[in-house]
Amino acid sequence: MQIQQLAVFCGSKEGRNPLYMQVAADLGRLMAARGITLVYGGGNKGLMGAVANGVMDHGGKAIGVIPEVLIAWEHQHEGLTELHVVPDMHVRKKMMYELCDAAVVLPGGHGTLDELFEMLTWNTLNIHNKKIILLNTAGYYTSLIEHMRVMTAQGFLYDNWEERLIVCTSAEEAIALFD
Question: Of 67, 130, 144, 150, which shows the fewest CB atoms inside 10 Å?
Answer without folding.
Answer: 150
